[in-house]
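Narrative of activities, Objective 1.

The group set out to show that a structural description can be obtained from nothing but a protein's sequence at a throughput compatible with the screening campaign. Below is one input-output pair from the validation batch, recorded exactly as produced.
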Amino acid sequence: MDLAKNILFIKNMVCPRCIKVVSDELQQLGLEIKNIQLGRVELKSSLTTVETHQIKTVLEKNGFELLDDKKFRIIEKIKILIIENIRDHKPEMNVNLSQYISKEVQMEYTHLSALFSSVEGKSIERFTILQKMELIKELITYDELSVKQIADQLGYSSLQALSSQFKKETGLTPTEFKKLTTGTDRKPISEV
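Output recorded for this entry:
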């Protein structure tokens, strides 16, 4: 945590719900938030040692972790960039992911890639594929988009490209996966 700037770096914040949970918990501790986004919270005032300990405890209780080490902050930023890029993919955004990450983190991609692999035990590319697979499973389960629409939304070159990668990663075709999840009691993504 950077006390001078009142910035908290938080691991495992990956969705809008995470932002709400962290925001609610910090407000219950009586802390005023200046700005909050995935993986990062800027507070309006300096923290005491007791407050820092309380934050760490409440975050861990909710599955988050306060990050102190610079390399872990970098890794978390890379993860957040990947997750945001996957979830908010815009077809007109023809930027190479490695260039995007390098630009946003302001470090050479080869260094970031080596750091990520050494800490996470998997490459940035592998992490990206796994995140895409989880989102595809989620979108198929909620049955709000066709598999073709999912392929388009996530920037796959074709339905076949998505289907091939999905089968390779899960052992099932998207259709087989959909049959397994049909009939389960699910809420639409917008209501989660």
